[in-house]
Amino acid sequence: MELLRVAPLADELAERFAAEGYRLFLVGGSVRDALLGRLGKAGSGDLDFTTDATPDAVQRLLSGWAERQWDTGIAFGTIGAIRQGVQIEVTTFRADSYDRRTRNPEVVFGDTVEGDLLRRDFTVNAMAVELPSRVFVDPHDGLAALASRILDTPAAPEDSFADDPLRMLRAARFVSQLGFEVAPRVRAAMTAMAEQITRITAERVQAELSKLITGAHPRAGLELLVSTGLAEHVLPEVPAMQLATDEHMQHKDVYEHSLVVMEQAIEREVDGPDLVLRLAALLHDVGKPATRKLEPDGRVSFHHHEVVGAKMTRARLRALRYPKSVIDEVSRLVYLHLRFHGYGTGEWTDSAVRRYVTDAGPLLERLHRLVRSDCTTRNRRRATALQRSYDSLEQRIATLREQEQLDAIRPDLDGNEIMRLLDLKPGPLVGKAYQHLLAVRMEQGPLTHEQAEAELRRWAAEQNLS
Predict the structure, then answer these.
(1) Sequential DSSP letters for 197-250
(2) pLDDT tens-digit profile of 264-290?
(3) CA angle, corner 231, sides to 229 and 234, nearest 5?
(4) Cα 265 to Cα 109: distance, rounded to the nearest angstrom
(5) Staple 262 to which of 113, 281, 300, 406, CB 3.0 to 4.6 Å?
(6) Number of Cα atoms under 13 Å in the Cβ half of residue 94
């Protein structure tokens, strides 16, 4: 029924190919998603085709039919196009070979759809439907694997992963996105070949990790990475949180705790998957292994683990080539996630509340979600007390926001006024004066213009500027 839903567009294209004696198949993820009822959902609306037509012939057949087409993938036999808002890709049958040093194939065009399907990553992606006849082609029992929600490879997994190690990360990504499990032989191959992932560029690894973390079941995908050893090479800080517990160093399982925090953060999302929040939840305690210390009274401490963790987070996300905005936001949340615990039962001054809001800036709502998710204690009384305490903090923030426009706290005098009043030219002294007035604003709240001017002149006198 899903295929019939897109059939008018697909059949139009197939008839153009058939008129010139070519065969056209809907293939791969498009067939899988149609069978799962996901076609057109969550970024699964694109249509992938394979054909015996050469790329030049495909370009000619798309001309006049597609509203737009491009050939950025022509070296791999792929032509892209858009019609009626649907993006399609048509790829000539391939029978590639690999040098097994990189993941770049030596592109060889094939002559059968069966040969093309054999090179696919997983059997659930190695199904095709010939159009317009709608003959189902499934030489590797992908439909049975789909029904069982199992990820297996058309060829031996060792050969498949040796050709392209990124497929191991794709396996974990599909576990997260689709809720599948990997076949035992696939898990064994991933474990034995985990180090091969180092052949893959950081950018490719990052793209797969992001899809995994924003999937419907990220915990399952991450657990697969950790259990197979892949995480040691792509996100080593996560398995490092599996701290050994002994009679002298009792503590929570930090790894398990972090996965739970991530799940609880996901429950608090409001506009779909939030990569920044999920990464922050997963990595918020990565600094604990490096800061773990047994105190004289027998307790275990992790002093300043938020500071260490923020630095570790920044370094890892940089290594994975994440955008600067993501790096800054995730590491900032990791740095701030413990700040609330100084609030106690409401002892913070208004000044401390202002600093909390200002330091979080546009990340405040995410910080709220992260801090609340970080409560995983089984002690219901303590959990309730923590949530009530955070309720109190949020209420105080709301009250101060009404009174003072907290989201845009600025000194009561701007740089131009500072320069005019102190007869200064632009330079470091203006910045120092600005920061002083900002600190005063934090401590005392809004000042009148006269009060701010008096404070500036008092500070200037201390600096021997007047």
Answers:
(1) GGGS-HHHHHHHHHHHHTSS-HHHHHHHHHHHTTHHHH-TTTGGG-----SSS-
(2) 999 999 989 999 999 999 999 999 988
(3) 130
(4) 47
(5) 281
(6) 22
**What type of residue is 165?**
P
Q: What is the DSSP letter of 94?
A: B
Three-state SS sequence of 4-66:
HHHHHHHHHHHHHHHHCCCCEEEECHHHHHHHHCCCCCCCCCCEEEEECCCHHHHHHHHCCCC
Structure-token pair, residue 141: 């029992």
249 has pLDDT over 80: no
Answer yes or no: is pLDDT of 446 > 90. Answer: no
Angle between helix axes 350-360 and 428-444 (nearest 10 degrees) is 130
Between CA 156 and CA 460 the distance in angstroms is 76
Pull the structure tokens for residue 74: 């022509």
List the alpha helices (DSSP H) in 244-379.
254-267, 275-283, 288-291, 305-319, 324-336, 350-360, 364-373
User: What count of residues does the chain have?
Assistant: 466
* Contact yes or no for 130/24 (Cβ under 8 A): yes
* First and final C-alpha spacing in the chain: 82
Tens digits of residue pLDDT in 297-335: 878 878 889 999 999 999 999 999 999 999 999 999 999
The C-alpha angle 56, 57, 60, rounded to 5 degrees, equals 90
Residue 446: count of CB within 10 angstroms of its CB = 12
